[in-house]
Every structure is written in C-alpha cells, then in structure tokens.
Write a sequence for this structure.
C-alpha cells in the first residue's frame, strides 16, 4: 500500500499544540507552524482503524495492559534494533518526559548533579532543575556540519556529585545518530565515575535513509546494560504523541525496582486504553509506513537544504541523520537570537523553535520541523526568501 504524505490537513481548532498555541507562543496566529515535534501527516489508518474498532464497544471502562503489549515491543526492538530484551526488563510509562522525571526522582538525590549535552531537548533541563538537581553541561561541538562530543570536556564537567547522565540518542535538535564508538567512550567515562545513564531513544525509529543504524546505548556492553535506563515510544514515528504511550527498559534488577517502586507509589504505571491499542497496532503493522514516511521526510530535508544553499546561504542547516527536525544556524544572518526569531515570525510568517531554549550553544539558531506536506514547506521557503529579499532591498536603499 502507498501512503499519501502530500495530503494537507487543517489542524486548527482541534486543540493541536502546533496550531492552536501559536498566538500564545509567537504573539500571532499568522504563521506556518514548523515547531513542536509532531507531524502534519495523517496518523496511519491501521492505528485509526484499531481505535475505531474498539469504539464499536460502548463501554470505555478501566483497562489492563494487553497481554501481548510487552511482547510486541520486544519483537519490534529485536527486529529493528537487533537488541534482545527479556520480558521482565520492560514496562509501560505514561510518556518519556514523565519517565525521565521518574528516573531522576527515583535514582538520584536532591542536589545531585546531572550531566546533559546542550543544545538538547529542553525538558532535560526541567526534569533536573524542577526536581532540585543541578545541571552539568557538556556542550556539543560542531565539526563538518555535525555535532560531535567533546570527551575531555565530558569528563571535566563531571563533579563528585554527578550521579546521572541523560543522553539523547538519536539527538534532538542535531539529528545525530550516535555511533557505537562514541557510545563506548561515553560508557567508559560513566563507568569510571559510577554514573547511571538515562538514554532517551524516542527518535530510534526515525533514522533517515542512508545513515548508520540506531544503536541502543544499553546494548553496547555488559556495563551499559547494567547501568542504563532506556526509554522508547511509538509516538514520534507514528504520529500519536497525543495518546501518551511509552516504555522503559531496565535490565538491572536493583535499578528497575527503585524505578518501578517510584512509578507504582506515584500511581503512574497505567496508560489509557487507546494508547495500548494504538501502540499494539504500530508495532504489529507499522514497518511499511515508517519506510515510506522516512523517505518522504528525507525528501523534505533535501528540499530545504538545497533551497537554503541556492537561495539563502547565510542560513546554515545541520543535516539530520535522524528525525524530522533541522537545526538552522543563523549566525551569518547578522542578528541576535531574539531578532532572528522575530524576523522569522513577523517578517517571514514562520513559527520555529527558538534555539536558545535548547541551552548553551543554541543562541542564533532555530529548530525547524519538516514533517509536513512538501507544498507547505515550499510555501514556507518562498515566504522566507521574500522576507530576506525585502530586508536586503530596504537596507540597501
Ligand atoms: C528527545 C525527546 N524526548 C522526549 C520527547 C517527548 O516525549 P513524550 O511526549 O513521550 O513525553 C520528545 C519530543 O519531542 C523528544 O524529542
């Protein structure tokens, strides 16, 4: 079956964050929203059909986790990431960001230090600071148009109080698929300093065609297996984040018990019945959809990268290896972070994420979501081009 990613679907007035929070975030509704990380593609029909079928029954009562939920996840991870999980390692969490927060609360103490690698997905900062832990920053370096890890700095930033490292694997916003050798070096340093690794692998299934495959951090060595909390979810890749469905994977029994005790004590170990149904449908029927979606997204990435190269070379895109997000460097545009963002919103009519929210290294950057029909992207790029032309002609007068 061929899926249609060109279909334009109006999401206004569905309470979609992407469309219906523009006014609050950008001060105007008059933007093409290319920000929050969900897709403007139709959620696949095999998911919608599974939910519709359940709606034929008129009672939406309390529901247990389906007996085949964890086995569907285990089969999926074995097939796609060549990692064999044991059934007792896995369980449900109501969202990855909540999962990160539970890991912080259950596996570290107040005032412990937690290492992160900015620019990075900003809730990593929230789950640390709002739980009264302290952030250590190992800022990523850019080399040949990609983020790389400064390992000397990684080790230097570890303090005697550092007990956890939160890894974004693959990385948001840079789209890096970390290589096995990079992960092994991380493991070596974390082992030396006795640090627990929390690996957020929500983008694991979003590796774009032609790139190295995703490597789950916990799969690289025995040490990593015993010292890692991994989170995965079908939410990004199948466009069901509104259903809130994710899983933890923790091989080590001691770590797992602490985490699960916290989850149960907080009464946060259950999902809703639609999240279960949708997740099962994704893991049982989703392979072909993912392949087609990733090809389409790759086409969108190439379109934006070529457009910028040919028309607006003062904006430099970091080409993602995974995800539908492009990290744009606006330094050569000659504007500070605020002005750059305002220019995109108010002159070009484009709503992107401001780079500075991703922490140190995010200044003068923007994050652009390209998971939308190509026509929308073409319109966005033309609006940007026109706005830059206007700005240039105004300043040359
Ligand atoms: C790295 C990363 N982790 C987690 C999330 C969100 O996870 P959830 O919606 O399951 O809390 C996102 C969404 O953009 C993300 O990019």
């Amino acid at each position: 079956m061929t899926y249609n990613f060109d279909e334009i679907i109006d999401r206004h007035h569905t309470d979609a964050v992407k469309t219906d929070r523009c006014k609050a975030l950008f001060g105007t509704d008059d933007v093409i929203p290319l920000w929050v990380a969900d897709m403007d593609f139709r959620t696949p029909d095999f998911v919608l059909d599974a939910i519709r079928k359940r709606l034929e029954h008129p009672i939406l009562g309390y529901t247990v986790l389906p007996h085949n939920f964890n086995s569907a996840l285990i089969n999926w991870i074995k097939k796609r990431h060549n990692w064999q999980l044991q059934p007792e390692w896995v369980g449900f969490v109501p969202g990855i960001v909540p999962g990160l927060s539970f890991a912080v609360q259950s596996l570290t103490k107040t005032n412990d230090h937690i290492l992160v690698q900015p620019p990075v997905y900003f809730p990593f900062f929230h789950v640390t600071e709002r739980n009264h832990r302290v952030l250590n920053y190992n800022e990523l370096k850019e080399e040949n148009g990609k983020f790389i890890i400064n390992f000397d700095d990684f080790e230097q930033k570890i303090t005697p109080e550092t007990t956890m490292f939160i890894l974004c694997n693959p990385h948001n916003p840079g789209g890096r698929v970390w290589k096995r050798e990079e992960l092994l070096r991380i493991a070596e340093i974390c082992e030396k300093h006795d640090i627990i690794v929390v690996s957020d692998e929500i983008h694991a299934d979003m590796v774009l065609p032609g790139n190295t495959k995703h490597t789950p951090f916990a799969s690289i060595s025995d040490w990593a297996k015993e010292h890692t909390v991994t989170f995965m979810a079908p939410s990004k890749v199948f466009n069901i984040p509104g259903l809130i469905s994710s899983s933890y994977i923790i091989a080590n029994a001691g770590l797992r018990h602490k985490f699960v005790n916290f989850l149960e004590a907080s009464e946060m170990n259950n999902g809703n019945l639609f999240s279960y149904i949708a997740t099962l449908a994704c893991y049982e029927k989703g392979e072909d959809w993912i392949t087609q979606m990733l090809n389409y997204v790759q086409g969108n990435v190439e379109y934006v990268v070529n457009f910028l190269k040919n028309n607006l070379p003062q904006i430099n895109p970091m080409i993602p290896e995974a995800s539908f997000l492009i990290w744009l460097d606006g330094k050569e545009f000659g504007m500070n972070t605020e002005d750059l963002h305002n220019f995109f919103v108010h002159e070009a009519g484009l709503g992107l994420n401001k780079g500075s929210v991703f922490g140190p290294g995010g200044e003068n950057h923007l994050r652009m979501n390209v998971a939308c029909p190509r026509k929308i992207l073409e319109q966005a790029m033309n609006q940007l081009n026109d706005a830059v032309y206007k700005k240039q002609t105004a300043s040359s007068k």
